[in-house]
Amino acid sequence: MRKFGAPFRKAIFICTQKRPDGHPVPCCANRDGMALRQELREMVKAKGLDHELKVFTSGCLGACEHGPAAVRYPDGEYLLGITQEDLPEIMNELLED
Known about the structure:
alpha+beta; 21% strand
């Protein structure tokens, strides 16, 4: 195994987990997880920062009832109940050192 540092400064993993239809627990996919991830990716790219800030798709982050959920790297902070209105604030937080 080889170990090395991440090739980017910060990242956010946004849950896009899809549960089967009729499942009693909600999922982030049904709460616009993929659309939120795509919009945040476009915001990062529009600022020309896609080489240092990464927006990844994630499977379940264990916070289904509070989703859409995300976790930031490297600080490990969970973001729960994300909406489109939260994306500018999330973007600003990713830009902070």
